[in-house]
Amino acid sequence: MDVDTGNSEEMAPPLQQSFMIPRKEINMVSDMGKWKRSQAYADYMGFILTLNEGVKGRKLTCEYNVSEPIEKLVALLNTLDRWIDETPPVDQPSRFGNKAFRTWYAKLDQEAENLVATVIPKHLADAAPEVAVYLKESVGNSTRIDYGTGHEAAFAAFLCCLCKIGVLRVDDQMAIVFKVFNRYLEVMRKLQKTYRMEPAGSQGVWGLDDFQFLPFIWGSSQLIDHPNLEPRHFVDEKVVNENHKDFMFLECILFITEMKTGPFAEHSNQLWNISAVPSWSKVNQGLIRMYKAECLEKFPVIQHFKFGSLLPIQPVTS
């Protein structure tokens, strides 16, 4: 498997890179301008859009390159999944926010650096503490026992950092979304169900979804130019059941319908409105705009984002 080690040394940043523990920089609404001008914002958004392009018109089940770091990331996520099985919910009076999540989280908090060290090569070992912070931030909040799009953004930032240090590469694009991010979604859904996590900063019926956003963006890109599936079809149960294994967007719809009762137009009004958009490319563009406005430009979400040497708060230098 190590045929391209020479190449990875070239891709690796010079060893004088000094890593740091990422920290909060957005403390007041007036700091939001710093975030939008930052190198972190430019790199994060660039990463999301590159992957959006990379999965365009492709099914989850298509053939793609699976590198060793991708396999290691899946193994890492499988470990988190196994810990859920080893940490069953506890009996408690309140229905939501099962306290066993805190036990599960404490294990991740303790092990995150070791887990990250299994994914990155020895010569980049110094990066592990910085990168591990994003992994810890990506699974929900252990005090509030909630999960939302800010946690999802931390996982995307985690993957973005792995790209920036050369662990993940251009030809990993499809595997990053279809194998790693998709496995992450499965683990998050299991966490949400097992510990009855609250949606973080949910806009209720006016939000796109209680927990996720990115799989709708990338999932709509997958469906661009599909010969017969149009946006109006995703509210059709039969279509969803027949195609969800191929398309992330439909997998999200399936999960919503499993978790919620009542008419779709009532519990997921925003998605219902999207089903009236004529083409998937229009849906995709609209969702990218909505993601910036509803997630990345909202103080309650971004105040928790952390900045380090890989995703710096400094203004873009171009």
Automatic annotation (TrEMBL):
GO terms for cellular component: cytoplasm; nucleus. Keywords: Acetylation, ATP-binding, Cytoplasm, Isomerase, Magnesium, Metal-binding, Nucleotide-binding, Nucleus, Rotamase. It holds the Pfam family PTPA. One of its GO terms (molecular function) is metal ion binding. It catalyses: [protein]-peptidylproline (omega=180) = [protein]-peptidylproline (omega=0). The keyword Disulfide bond does not apply. It is found in: Cytoplasm; Nucleus. Belongs to the PTPA-type PPIase family. This is Serine/threonine-protein phosphatase 2A activator.
